[in-house]
Amino acid sequence: MVSDENSVWTQRFRSASGATSRLVCFPHAGGSASFFFPLSKVMPPSIDLLAVQYPGRQDRRFEKPVDDIAVLADRIAVALEADRDDLPMVFFGHSMGATVAFEVARRLEARGITLADLVVSGRRGPTAQRQEWVHKLGNTALVEHVRSLDGTKAGVLDDPEIVRMVLPVIRNDYKAAETYRYQPGPDVSCPITALLGDHDPQVTVDEAKEWAAHTKAGFDLHVFEGGHFYLNDHWPEVIECLRERTASAS
Question: Is residue 165 pLDDT above 80, yes or no?
Answer without folding.
Answer: yes
